[in-house]
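Give me C-alpha cells for this 139-residue protein.
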Amino acid sequence: MNEQQQPTLERLEDTDLTLADLADDIRGRTVVDSSGEEIGKVDSLFIDRDERRVRLLQISSGGILGIGDSKKLIPVDAVTAVDDDKVHIDQHHEHVAKGPVYDPDLAREEPQDFVDVYSYYGATPFWTPGYMYPRYHRH
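Here you go.
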C-alpha cells in the first residue's frame, strides 16, 4: 500500500463491525509490560476497516473513573501474549509512560497521524510494503 492509499483507522465501537470471535475482544483487560508490571487497561481497539484487522490498542492508565487518565496507543505488534484477563506486551512500563499521549478529542484517526506511535515503539507501520500481521500466543 503506498502513502496515497493508506486506510483510515476507526475505533471499533464507532463502527458497525464486530469481532468474529468474542475471545478476541480484549477491551477491559489489564495490559502488563515485559516484566509483568501493570500499565493500564485496554479502552478501545483501532481497526483498519479495509482489511478488518485490529491495528492499535488504546490504553488508559491513572485517573479515577476515567477522570485524569492518560491515554496511549500501542501497536498490536507489541502484543506478545493474551490470557483471560491480561494483555502482555514487549515494552517496559517506563517506555510506555514516556510515549506519545493520545487525545481522542484532537485526533483525526488517520494512519499518517500514527507514524510517531509506530516509530516510538519500533514497529513497522501496517501500511508499508512487506508488513506482516503479528502473531501472539494465548495462555
